[in-house]
Amino acid sequence: MNRSAGRRAVTALAGVGAFGIMLTAAPSASAIVGGDPVADGQRSFVVRIERQGDDGAWSQFCGAALIDSRVVATAAHCANMAEQGKIKIRLVMGRADANATGGTVVTDDQFSVYSHPSFSTQTNTDLGLLVLDRPADQTSAVLPPLRKTLRPGRLMSAAGWGRTTLDDPTKPSRLREARLPVTAFDTEGGIWDKKFICAGTAESRVAPGDSGGPLFDMKGSGRAVVYGLVTGETNTCTGLFTNLSDPAVWKPFRAPLASHGLSHVIPA
Fold first, then answer.
1. What are 56-92's pLDDT values in tens digits?
2. 156: enclosing H helix or E strand
3. Which of 77, 83, 121, 265 has the highest local Cβ count within 10 Å?
4. Domain coordinates of the chain in residue numbers?
5. Pick the CATH number of 1-260 from 3.60.20.30, 2.60.40.1180, 3.40.50.300, 2.40.10.10
6. ω into 75 cis (within 30 of 0)
């Protein structure tokens, strides 16, 4: 919206019933399982994307991350319907508890939406960008260098407003965060792109409603480094993340970002 509005397939985790790419059928979204509530004022770079229903009410749709003062990154499967004008979304920033006041609400007349034109659940292309007209008040996260590799066993963090159990569709109003170990990614015979990041266990994982939310680590400076975004899960990966260190995933966004004077956003 440039302001306009089988078993081997991926299942996403977005607000409409998916959690990201749950790799079993088609994109969907979810929440954090095995996590803890995030205190007010913490993780303000984590953005809540809300969708407006037919009754005019707003509800949790996807997660996202502020990666520059004017750029929010989320999953393509969260952004593309808004880009096409099929749904109406808004951004809620700096508010850990969705039922609280404060923070910033950014309506769709204040940002432009771009989603990866070649998005596929089987390739590392589940990326969408929302470019704000004005800089956000919140402190942004940063991106890792291109081609940065995360070794299996490294503990990362994930945050979102998705389900806290897979059996209950209820989603919490407060942001939750969990620590997830990076695991070796099984491409299942070459079905999946090797560039994805896989992280999580059965007890500590992302879930439906967490789509587009960040996989991150905290720097000594206190700023977060966002390595990936929730896309879904596969038969062998409980948490599949778009790899933001992959140079190829950024290629379609170079021209749009340059048109907004934001070429510096893409890491070197």
1. 999 999 999 999 999 999 999 999 999 999 999 999 9
2. strand 155-160
3. 77
4. 1-260
5. 2.40.10.10
6. no
